[in-house]
Amino acid sequence: PVFVHVRRGPAGDPSGLQEILVEAKRTATSVHICHITHNAINNLEFFLAEIRQARADGVDVTTEIFPYNAGSVYISAAVFQRNWREVFAADYSDIEWAATGERLTEESFMDYQRSQPLGQIHNHYVEEVWTRRAITEPGMIVVSDLLPMESLDLNVAPHNNSFSKVLARYVREEKLLDLATALAKMTLLPARRVEAVAPSFKRKGRIQVGADADITVFDADAILDKATYANPYQAAEGISYVLVNGVPVLRDGKLVASVYPGERLTAPKKQD
Fold first, then answer.
1. At what angle are helices 44-56 and 128-135 packed, to 10 degrees?
2. Which helix (H) or strand (E) holds 31?
3. Counting beta carbons within 10 angstroms of the beta carbon of residue 28, is it exposed (0 to 12), middle (13 to 18) or buried (19 or more)?
4. How would you class 63 by CB atoms within 10 Å of its CB: exposed for 0-12, middle for 13-18, buried for 19 or more?
5. pTM (2 d.p.)
6. Pairing label, strands 2-4, 102-103
């Protein structure tokens, strides 16, 4: 599948999505639409309906959500060189300077963009109601998404708590999803999305004989996301064990030092 960030127009403009869906149908290409709420913005229901219709028309298309309501990027990103307030239906006060938590003004935005172009910002333009709606859509995959974590001094986005947030907030507290459905959205559905081209993923995302022993053991009554935009390096609570290929890398809630049992997974090489 081709993984796509759709072309952005004004907030809610579906033309970028429709462009991809038309080309996918024309070329019989599998596509995966990234970050549906961050692209659909205030037109989420229409975006979801277009994807459902494309599937009905035979297009192999999936989409996903990461359950945080800001976009994180460098202040010099291309979108901030054009009509970004129209694109995001946002304003300067929605932009947070990641290093300090400061909400920006037009003056401070221009100053940071000029003096620290690689500085990270959080753009708080997604509404919680959109996130809650998208996460219940059948077939919706749940993902995490991170900027480079180069230093503990950098306040990168807290998306390393994506899955614990879903399990705590949307399963246990709000009951938007049952536990089995939520887990499938994080594990089985993404594995199935790529297993046709990378058969090793047929052993991922499920617990059964012959599958790789990649297992997270958590307390459904205690799991809790702790990371925030102000303090993104806080580990989630309620996770006791993590096994990678059958080897514990987290034991009794603590990291196991100097253990690296993971393997890089790739698609098989094509024959000439």
1. 20
2. strand 31-33
3. exposed
4. buried
5. 0.92
6. unpaired
- How open is the CA angle 104-110-114, to the nearest 5 degrees? 125
Distance CA 172, CA 195 (A): 30
Give the pLDDT band (50/70/90) at residue 232. Answer: confident
User: Residue 268 has what pLDDT?
Assistant: 72
> Considering Cα of 38, then 40, then 45, then 50, what sign does the dihedral take?
negative
What b/e readout covers 89-104, taking b as 16+ CB neighbours within 10 angstroms? ebeeebbbbbeeeeeb
How far is the CA of 193 from the CAs of 143, 180, 185, 189, in angstroms?
Answer: 13, 18, 11, 6
| CA atoms of 261 and 249, how far apart (whole Å) | 8
- Decide if pLDDT at 270 tops 70: no
Q: Report the C-alpha gap between 104 and 229 in whole angstroms.
A: 15
Task: Please give the average per-residue pLDDT across 83-109, as a whole number.
Answer: 96
CA distances from residue 29 to 20, 25, 50, 251 in whole angstroms, order as listed = 10, 7, 17, 42
Q: Which residues have CB under 8 Å from 129's CB, separation 6+?
A: none
The residue among 99, 209, 223 whose CA lies nearest residue 156 is: 99
